[in-house]
Design a protein that fits this description.
Blueprint: E1 2-8, H1 13-23, E2 30-37, H2 43-50, E3 55-57, H3 66-79, E4 84-87, H4 96-101, E5 106-110, H5 125-134, E6 138-145, E7 155-162, H6 169-193, E8 197-200, E9 203-206
Parallel strand pairs: 1-2, 1-4, 2-3, 4-5
Antiparallel strand pairs: 5-6, 6-7, 8-9
Helix pairs in contact: 1-6, 5-6
């Protein structure tokens, strides 16, 4: 049984999707053993506590730079004996220290179809605003492994939805979360815990 650590910064809707999938028995050979937040008082921490999952807060604002903050988060994950680290709405881009410590063992969910609408500055509603401004007809979500290249790691799963003529960034965000993110993130986590994902270069093969 693998230990899954989830990194959060806000409300924790993707964390809830993971918890719900775990409670339904859909995450095979893994369990969420810790939730680490970059901010105190966020609702994601409450979601974890309601489900008996240990939590930690490592406030970003208490560290002078990203190197010191990454070191603190990495050490906490090692202490938690994390086998898999899941970024679920974690709003800080960590540096290469954590990639070296958990290479091939960290994944992130991004609310667009990578390689479009990704990288620095593309987060939250900014992604959906850019999608609508571009005129594309499809969007969705991507679960990928985390590397030092922001949103550039090997893609594990993608799921698409249609864009409607009357969509706003808010309606599109909601549909992408409900129909894509909340479905593919637990699936990717389970595939990892089952040992079914192979990384070959910058691609994955799911067996």
């Amino acid at each position: 049984m693998l230990n899954i650590a989830v990194l959060v910064s806000g409300g924790g809707t993707n964390l809830q999707a993971l918890i719900d999938a775990q409670n339904r028995g859909e995450i095979k050979n893994g369990r969420i053993t810790s939730v680490i937040s970059s901010k105190d008082g966020v609702y994601a921490l409450e979601r974890a506590k309601q489900n008996g999952i240990p939590t930690r807060v490592i406030p970003r604002k208490e560290y002078s730079d990203i190197h010191a903050y990454t070191k603190a988060v990495t050490e906490a994950l090692i202490e938690e004996k994390a086998d898999l680290v899941v970024y679920a709405g974690f709003m800080t881009i960590l540096d290469g220290q954590i990639v070296k410590a958990f290479e091939g063992r960290m994944m992130n969910v991004h609310p667009a179809l990578i390689p479009s609408f990704c990288g620095k500055g593309f987060y939250g509603l900014h992604v959906h605003e850019a999608v609508l401004a571009s005129g594309v007809k499809l969007t969705g979500a991507t679960v990928h492994f985390v590397t030092e290249d922001c949103d550039g790691g090997p893609i594990i799963i993608q799921k698409a939805v249609n864009i409607n003529n009357d969509d706003t960034p808010e309606t599109l965000q909601k549909r992408v979360m409900e129909q894509c993110e909340w479905k593919i993130l637990p699936k990717a986590v389970s595939l990892f815990c089952e040992g079914r994902i192979k990384i070959i270069g910058n691609k994955t093969v799911v067996e």
